[in-house]
Amino acid sequence: MGKEKTEKKVGLVKAGKSVSAKLLSVLIPMMVVGIVIIMLVVFSQAKSIITDLAMGNLQKESEFYAEQIGREITNLQEYLDAQADALSAISFPNDTAMASFLIPTLSKNPYVPNGMYLSTSTGDWIDPSGWVPDPDYIPMERDWYKEGEQHATFLAGEPYIDSDSGSMVVSFTRKVKLADAREGVASSDYTLDGIMEQIGSLKPVKTGGCMLLYHDTILSYFKPEFNGTRVSEHPEAKFLQGAYTFSTTGSTDVVEIESENGLTYLVSANQIPGTEWVLISSVAEGDVMAQLNKFKIICAIIVIFMILLVAVIMYVLINKMITKPVGNLTANITRITDGDFTVEIPEGGEDEIGLMNNNMKSFVNHMRGALGNIKDETNKLASEAENSRDASGKLNVQATEQSSNMNQIRDAMNGMASAVTELANNATELATEVADLMEQGNGARDTVKELVVKAQDGQRDMDVVQRGMDKIAGSMTEMNTDVQAVGESAKKIDSIIEIISSIADQTNLLSLNASIEAARAGEAGKGFAVVAQEIGQLAANSAESTTEIGKIITEISQQIADLSEKSQSNMDEIKSSTEAVQTAGKTFEEIFSSLDETSATVQAMIDKIGNVDTIATSVAAISEEQSASTEEVTATTDNLAVSAQQVAQESQGVDDSASTVSASAATIEDFVKDFKI
């Protein structure tokens, strides 16, 4: 055989996961998800119901506690009002008898140790406890007295810390009018220790707590150190701040307030009847939900147990009804995949698995007959394939030799064609370059001619410039001479001005002497004095004018001097420019001479380039004709080589096909041998 026998034996492959496991992995998660969704819905509804119930209970209990505390306060107020009314109705012989009448108030309430006392507007003090204020104690200036003047029944005032007992105390005060017509204020100090203890023992909704506020003053709080302080003093107490803000709204609804430790509380606020105190009841939401959480845990345990029980029952049923029959069928199919068609498959039932058994049995019987026929035909195919492969091998060898010879001829023609084509291209490029060079030479010749003309014009222009510079130099020399003459004249004018100034000084002196002599002459010299004064004024004006003219002449002299210096500088520059112009003229003469020679040289070069261009054009034409002929021969050779290559490839294909057929026949024969029939 041409190829080795390939091993096709397939071993027994066990299933990675059983059918029962797959079914359970799908059914159990679905069941769990469904139960979890149902539990979430139930828990959500239960939470809502429990929360509403807790809020209702908290609100009712808070109202009950407020009314309970309010009744105690109201009873005390009514008792004190009755005592005050009795003082107004009964006439007492003196204040001592009145104090004795009030002694029962000392034992009426354990949290009113001082009973009821009063002070009149005249300063009389009546106290059943026997306490006598110091001389500097003026009741009318006290806050409790001022507060009591505002109302006719006992009302609670501002709480304060008693300095003696350290307890928080509230004074109940009212206005009274005694039977003897004296007016004053009655008061009773109520210690809040009892109320604070009572509030501390309150447990709304079993686990909650209460606190008591008077406006922003803390009467009772969960932290005893806060008692007697103001809410504003504890900005860090988030729950206290929220509860106080809620109490100021006057709402009796239950709200949720978050504390500084992150817990949420249900809060209800109620005012104590007969006071301005607000009782705030609260309970942690977590405590309210504790029963629900316990219920959740119990439900979770039950659900897990039910899921496990259902999973076991489903596993047993699936294993009996599906896994075992499918396992038997899978074992038979595995033997068939290993090529063993001697397996005997029993008849199945009427369900899907039984139908699969029956169909598999029919398939095995059919394959036994088919494999026997295939084995016979494969033996015949193997013999014919071996003969075909020998003939195609000889044909392939001959076609390959012919293709190799044609390829050698094609390579030689390709080399010749490349050489001819390269020669033609070089000749063409040479002709093109020579033509371009000739055009550039003509351009250079025209440029040289233009340069000769421009050089002639430049030489003429330089002559004109040189003559102009000579004239300018002569003019500047004459102007410099005139400027020097003007300077000498200015100096002469300056000397004349000095003479005029001297004359003016002498005239002024003469006028002064004349004025002196006229003064000596007295009345006879008055006319002469006037003339002398005019002469003096004229002399002064002449002196001033002379001075101004001198300044002007000085400025003119300075300007003339500057002009002279500039004229001399311009003459030097003009002299230098004249020399440069003369040098440029000589240079233009040399350039003109060189351009004549260059023009003749360029013309000779252009003539030679024309001869080269004619030769290069002829060579390019001959090379192109030879290249075209070579290309035709090369094309014919290429076609022959391609044809020979195709023949060789087809021969190789036939040989490969014959080998493949022979190998396939051997392989089929091996496969058929693997099957047991």
Explain this structure to me?
- The chain has helices at residues 19-89, 95-101, 143-148, 193-201, 238-247, 285-288, 290-337, 352-521, 526-674; strands at residues 116-120, 125-126, 155-156, 160-161, 168-177, 183-191, 209-214, 217-220, 255-258, 264-271, 277-284.
- It is flat, with a radius of gyration of 70 Å.
- The longest helix is centred in the middle third of the chain and has 170 residues, at 352-521.
- Among the domains are: 90-189, 2-Layer Sandwich (Beta-Lactamase), CATH 3.30.450.20; 367-673, Orthogonal Bundle (Helix Hairpins), CATH 1.10.287.
- Helices cover 70% and strands 9% of the residues.
- Mean pLDDT is 78; it is low at 1-12.
- The protein contains nine helices and eleven strands.
- The strands form two sheets. Strands 1, 2, 3, 4, 5 and 6 form a six-stranded antiparallel beta sheet that branches. A five-stranded antiparallel beta sheet has the order 8-7-11-10-9.
- It has 677 residues and is of the alpha+beta class.
- 17% of the residues are buried.
- The two termini are 24 Å apart.
- Strand 4 (160-161) and strand 5 form a beta hairpin.
